[in-house]
Amino acid sequence: xxxxxxxxxxxxxxxxxxxxxxxxxxxxxxxxxxxxxxxxxxxxxxxxxxxxxxxxxxxxxxxxxxxxxxxxxxxxxxxxxxxxxxxxxxxxxxxxxxxxxxxxxxxxxxxxxxxxxxxxxxxxxxxxxxxxxxxxxxxxxxxxxxxxxxxxxxxxxxxxxxxxxxxxxxxxxxxxxxxxxxxxxxxxxxxxxxxxxxxxxxxxxxxxxxxxxxxxxxxxxxxxxxxxxxxxxxxxxxxxxxxxxxxxxxxxxxxxxxxxxxxxxxxxxxxxxxxxxxxxxxxxxxxxxxxxxxxxxxxxxxxxxxxxxxxxxxxxxxxxxxxxxxxxxxxxxxx
Amino acid sequence: xxxxxxxxxxxxxxxxxxxxxxxxxxxxxxxxxxxxxxxxxxxxxxxxxxxxxxxxxxxxxxxxxxxxxxxxxxxxxxxxxxxxxxxxxxxxxxxxxxxxxxxxxxxxxxxxxxxxxxxxxxxxxxxxxxxxxxxxxxxxxxxxxxxxxxxxxxxxxxxxxxxxxxxxxxxxxxxxxxxxxxxxxxxxxxxxxxxxxxxxxxxxxxxxxxxxxxxxxxxxxxxxxxxxxxxxxxxxxxxxxxxxxxxxxxxxxxxxxxxxxxxxxxxxxxxxxxxxxxxxxxxxxxxxxxxxxxxxxxxxxxxxxxxxxxxxxxxxxxxxxxxxxxxxxxxxxxxxxxxxxxxxxxxxxxxxxxxxxxxxxxxxxxxxxxxxxxxxxxxxxxxxxxxxxxxxxxxxxxxxxxxxxxxxxxxxxxxxxxxxxxxxxxxxxxxxxxxxxxxxxxxxxxxxxxxxxxxxxxxxxxxxxxxxxxxxxxxxxxxxxxxxxxxxxxxxxxxxxxxxxxxxxxxxxxxxxxxxxxxxxxx
Lengths: 335, 523
Known about the structure:
The complex is a heterodimer of chains A (335) and B (523). Chain A has 335 residues and is an all-alpha fold. In chain A, 75% of the residues lie in helices and 0% in strands.
């Protein structure tokens, strides 16, 4: 497994190089003039030229890319032409916010979806199965941003149980940053009050994000479970008089999990890149909004930085998923 | 029967702890003894440099953390003392002498001296960014002098009647701090995220793209004002979210509401709506230097063909029709000026005289993606040009692309919708920015150029006699209307909403969404 892991990590390098070349080329070749925009409406032509020189935008494209790539190796992800802030610094702030949201959404989706899929399979063609099918169809069809708005209306406006948006109350100081995850940082600080606040603010956006993967995980788990339930060893276990619950949770669930794991890994990537609508509705200061602002202002360094970050995370998560196959099923061998 | 296992007990305890933690949150608006005003806006503040930053969000930050010689107050706005407690103006309008308030102090305790004012003006001119365009050509590096610590003298290069009106936007920095952090860029890197200020508030917390928290300076030099201990400028991108925050009391003021939001807020308890005319025009510029609209007759034909009532209705009832290039209420506005209104007979008459009489012309209308108002106006325009046998291609583009297109006549679209908001309460602002040829190549006035209009703008800038200024601007308006460089659209009213507990808010038709914190209180 170690050799397999190392090989996968090494393969990550050409993937990221290819991704960076592609994104860099697309971002730089787009029409428009980000320098003029960053210089402001009253800037003279000389100022615009100076700004272009300051950011190296007057050099040939391959030279610009080489400068960027070598900077990456030193931890320099470039500077935003619009805000003049280092992209690495911005990613340190925005990426954990999105990760916290995505992790929370996936945790909800997994914790509810896997048992729901098992339950639906165990009660095939009875009302729990039908209910899960209807629920899954509705959840996959519902646009996330619309669901977010409905959740805001119901839980924030009508019931008043949860806040409208944001990550933390505006007039209170958040716990000191360690990981950037407010929930973890507040626990690390021993501040249960802050932890509770962080959870309250996380609840609605995480639920809006989790519904689509939850539905898919439920359906996938149901299908895999039904397939495993037909296996000979399950029939043998039943014949030996083992209880239905023991067979389901001890023997069937682990074997049915493999296909669902793949979906979990893929959805993690999809969610990372698809948070912008939920972040907009809930004013969640994550990379979705950060990247959107950068795209609109043609601020290509943040765009490249966000794309590379998501690429690294996506590949890493899927590597972890691949390794988990071996944990779940010891018969899996890595070559 | 359900067995009580160790696992189920631990799981249950975890759930109970989480629920307890969830329920322990305080109400969103509870502040205890603090009086923190929360303003919801969708505009970020990427730069704190008072001589570089622009935009209403930056204006909000700067007017609350920095000071200027005078402030603009009232409706119509008039200059009132601020750093300067009094001033004199020479009869020819070229020499100003300001007496500084001896109490004025920077945040580090050092006095705000005449030298600081001189330094600040010169830095603004050197950088040539931000609001420096307001004084460019009016003063230079030798214009400002400080004969003593408490006096500032400014000798203008030429008379500029609106000089006092622009001074509220020229901020005074602490020279010692800037010089200590000069770097190679005149302190721009330092002041982008730091302050060298004297204002009543300072920035306690800045989270780019999320929020900016202000706190009142404990020993601010200026006494009085409201009871705010602080304020938060919260970035809320969706206007519907701003509206909901206002209704719930999670925000006290929302500054970007649409007509639909305002309608939804009608009669909501605890919400006060402010709908006031502002010096803010919305017109559709025509490319007078390239393409079919170099023909004055075609411009007039389209101007008569537009359904102005539809333009008004497209704005949801929160606007009035423009009557020429200047907004009502501003000095020199002529309420009797004859402007274009829907008249298909005249439209066809002018079309017949134009070079596009045979039809078959395709015009372009490029608007800012995401601004639904501009899209609706495009549809009204489509209807108008179709009746003239012309065609219109409507395209949504992002702002940077449109700004780049406006740099040359060849790439400027045939129609280009533009909001013009006055930065200061003088007709010179809109006349110069929107119709002066010195602004050609910029989005405010990409192409229109008329030597006669330029001459009137210069005359209006330098004439001291108010009656003569009114006559000059009356002529200016007639000249611009005769040239028909724009379809004069609507005057959008400023739409703000605030909680009823916000006290002492006074509307000023200039930068009203750049909320000034000092006089405000929370009940």
